[in-house]
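User: Okay, second chain of the day. Same drill as before: sequence in, structure tokens out.
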Amino acid sequence: MTLRDASYDGQAVQIGGIGGVKTHPAERDNGYAAMGLERAVEFFEAQPALAFALLVCEQSLIEYYSRFGWQGFEGRLMTAQHGETAEFMFKVIVLDIHLPAPTNGMIDLLGPPW
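Assistant: Same drill. Structure tokens below.
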């Protein structure tokens, strides 16, 4: 989990991010991912300035995350890579925290990916 100052359509916003989550194949179907997501959302909700959360994942996991309220973001996610701003090309999903999460537009992480 991470907290990040970013921008959404040119406006400053604080977002929460989840990245690098994996469950060992032998431990799948034990509810560990669901527990981790629940704890992350609790942490994010305790941050009063946090607008929404963002997660980057494989297309095949969208259905899983949607069960927890995550929704697709069809806009552009910009990051700093090798000193230049570039579009991040993986699937982005978002979750409402204290404000409705955007489903389109441009999110700029104002730095490298998580």
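The chain has one domain: 2-108.

User: Thanks, on to the next one.
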